[in-house]
Amino acid sequence: MNLARLILAAVLWCAPVAVPALLVTAPVGCVADGQDAALVNAERFQRIAIDAIDEFLIYDDQNAAHLPPAIHQAAERLRVSAPPAIHAVREATLAYKTRPTLENETGLDAALDRIETLARLARQSLVEAKGLQ
Amino acid sequence: MSAITLLQLALAGVEGAVRIFRSIQAAARQSSALTPEQDAAFDAKIESILKSDPWKTDAQRAAEGNPRL
C-alpha cells in the first residue's frame, strides 16, 4: 500500500516537470540513423542563424528611430553582409550534399563560421537594443 | 482505494510516461537531412526573408521611396 502510494505520488509529482523537459531536450542533437550528422547539424544551424539575424533586423526596422546609431549601423552592416553569407552557406550545403568530400566539408564549415559570426552579432545587438529600450 | 488499484494507477502513469518518451524519441529520429523538396522550400523561404523590408538597407528603402521611419 505504502509502496504503491509512493510510486503514484512520484509519477504524479514528476510528470509536470519531466514531460516538458523531455519535450524540450530530447530532440536536440538527435540525428537519424544513416544520416550525416555534419549535414543535419549544418541545416539546423542555418535555420537558427537566419532566424536570429531576421529577428534583430525586424526589431531594428520597427525601432530604428529610437535606437542608438551604433545598433542601427550594426543592422545596416548585417543587411549588406548577411545575404551573400547566407547564399554561400546554402551553396556550400548543397555542394556537400551532392559530394560529401573533405574539401566540401571544409567549405561548409567555413561558410557556417561566417554565418555564425553574423548571427552572434545579431544576437548581441538585439540584447543590447532591448536592454536600452 | 485498494493497494492494487493504486498500484495499477501508478503503473499506468509509468506506462504513459514511457509512451510519451518513446514518441519523443520517434520524433527525434525524424531529424534528418532535408530532402530536395524541403531544400527548395527552405531556399524559397530564405529568398522571401531576404527580400522583405527589414532586410533592405536604408539606401535601398529610400531608393524605393519607402524610407525607414
Secondary-structure map with pairings?
The complex is a heterodimer of chains A (133) and B (69).
Chain A lengths: L1 H24 L11 H27 L5 H30 L3 H31 L1
Chain B lengths: L2 H27 L6 H15 L7 H6 L6
What does this protein structure show overall?
The complex is a heterodimer of chains A (133) and B (69). By secondary structure, chain A is mostly helical. The longest helix of chain A has 31 residues, at 102-132. Chain A has helices spanning 2-25, 37-63, 69-98, 102-132. In chain B, 70% of the residues lie in helices and 0% in strands. Chain B is built from 3 helices and no strands. The longest helix of chain B has 27 residues, at 3-29. The radius of gyration of chain B is 26 Å and the shape is elongated. The interface between A and B is large, with 44 and 36 residues.
Quick description:
Chain A has helices at 2-25, 37-63, 69-98, 102-132. Chain A is mainly alpha-helical and 133 residues long.
Strand content of chain B: under 5%
Low-confidence stretches of chain B: none
Shape descriptor of chain A reads flat
What is the arithmetic mean of pLDDT of chain A?
85
| Approximate strand percentage of chain A | under 5%
Report the strand count of chain A: 0
Give the helix tally of chain A.
4
Please, what is the average pLDDT of chain B?
80
- Helix and strand string of chain A, N-terminal first? HHHH
Q: Which chain pair shows the most residues in contact?
A: A-B, 44 and 36 residues
The topology string of helices and strands of chain B comes to HHH
DSSP helix count of chain B? 3
Please identify the structural class of chain B as seen in this structure.
mainly alpha
Number of strands of chain B: 0
Major sheet attributes of chain B: none
Largest sheet of chain A: none
**Helix residue percentage of chain A:** over 70%
Looking at how many chains there are and whether they match, the oligomeric state comes to heterodimer
Cα distance spanning the termini of chain B: 68 Å
Helix content of chain B: 55-70%
Radius of gyration of chain B: 26 Å
